Amino acid sequence: MKKYIAVKMKFWIGHAAAAAWTIFSIMLSLPWVSDLGRIVSLPVAVIIIAGIGYLPGYINAFMVVSLLLDRQPPFKISDPDDPITLIIACRNEEKNIADTLRYIKGQDYRGEINTIVVDNDSTDRTAEKAMEAAAQLELPVQVLHEPKPGKNNALNNALNHVATDYLATLDADTLLHKSAIKNLVARMKSAPEQVCAVAGAVLAKNSRENFVARIQEWDYFLGIASIKRLQGLYQGTLVAQGAFSLYKTRVIKEAGGWPDAIGEDIVLTWNFLKNNCMVYFEPLAVAFTEVPASMKHLFRQRSRWARGMIEALSLVKPWKQPMGYVRYMTGINLIMPYLDFIYTFCWIPGLIFALFGKYWIVGPYTLFVLPLCLVQNYVLYSYQKGVFRSLNLRIRKNKLGFIFYVLFYQMLMSPMSMLGYFQEFLKLDRVWK
């Protein structure tokens, strides 16, 4: 039997290991700082290298050590039967809604699932397709119409029709593993009373469509899942994502429903945390969503996510969060614009300079980042492999996508995030999809 380590101890062990790694990195990089300082001045050199190496290294080292210490507690109630309401807010999803309902029908959950489909001013036959599929599947589905555009409006319309203690949200292009709802409710029923929401594990469904989708498979499988697992370990998953999450109905109603925000799920979650509610993550509650298959749509999605983060930071200040772990986790988001700026306007140009033999920013010293990156991904892969094994799922072979994800993916993500920051700064019009 492995020795139990308290969450507080894991937190400080993680920070101690991260500090040791950062001190080692600083000592190793002194010649690099000196060389770059002669070109751009010493203070600017420190700012650049801190954004490229020190801070990302600290965060990643903290994550690796924390996850190595993490032990997901077993369910106290593994086969719950509480009735729940499942809300699907959709706009122009006539191609997907039938499959989504079919996978709901295939759930092994013992409790009653009340499904509400909200057609948010669609211009296609989304509502008709939902009713046709419900009739064929003999699945009780209530179809509502919300003429006012905005996902928050659709969700709040459905909230008025919820009579169960628990509700879950699901995107119309997202398919549920057969035990997804059972595992999500089991985590909620096994959690302390302060837990008001549980985020499910959302993975890529269409990763075979093209290379853009293939590289995102690893982002969802390793990157996003690991961040949520880390946040869940410290009792503050920062986004109970609308794509698939479970909530206590009472708490959402007390919060006034979903806010009018481009990141309505982010702001709602942070409001929960602000009110001393905990948010967990359940890796066994797996759903598969359709990821963007074009660079245009990927740019739109990730810039929208980045914009939603800035919006949440402006509405719910990290230093006002009552729980210490949550203050730290939300506080990390304060430095993300700085890291993305450095990566976009320093790292990428530095890589181009390096191709011509100018190693001012990117050079031999940056290779020391790779071992930590590989260790991090190995730890995450090993954990996710265990999750898939327990669910009788198989990891797809995608070696080329993995190599691109490790070496180049951030070169796409940071510029996309910068676009979102500028959109929010300029208060440009919001777009749901």
Task: Explain what this protein looks like in three dimensions.
This protein has 433 residues and is α/β, with parallel strands linked by helices. It folds into two domains: 1-71, no CATH class; 84-328, Spore Coat Polysaccharide Biosynthesis Protein SpsA, Chain A (Alpha-Beta Complex). The protein is built from 14 helices and eight strands. Strands 3-2-1-4-7-6-8-5 form an eight-stranded mixed sheet, sandwiched between helices. The mean pLDDT is 92.
Helical percent range? 55-70%
Succession of helices and strands: HHEHEHEHEEHEHEHHEHHHHH
> Would you tell me which CATH topology of the largest domain applies?
Spore Coat Polysaccharide Biosynthesis Protein SpsA, Chain A
What does the largest sheet look like? Answer: 8 strands, mixed
- Number of extended strands: 8
Oligomeric state of the chains in view? single chain
Low-confidence stretches: none
Give the CATH level 1 class of the largest domain.
Alpha Beta
What's the average pLDDT?
Answer: 92
End-to-end span in angstroms? 48 Å
Strand order of the largest sheet: 3-2-1-4-7-6-8-5
Q: Please, what is the CATH homologous superfamily of the largest domain?
A: Spore Coat Polysaccharide Biosynthesis Protein SpsA, Chain A
Secondary structure tally, helices: 14
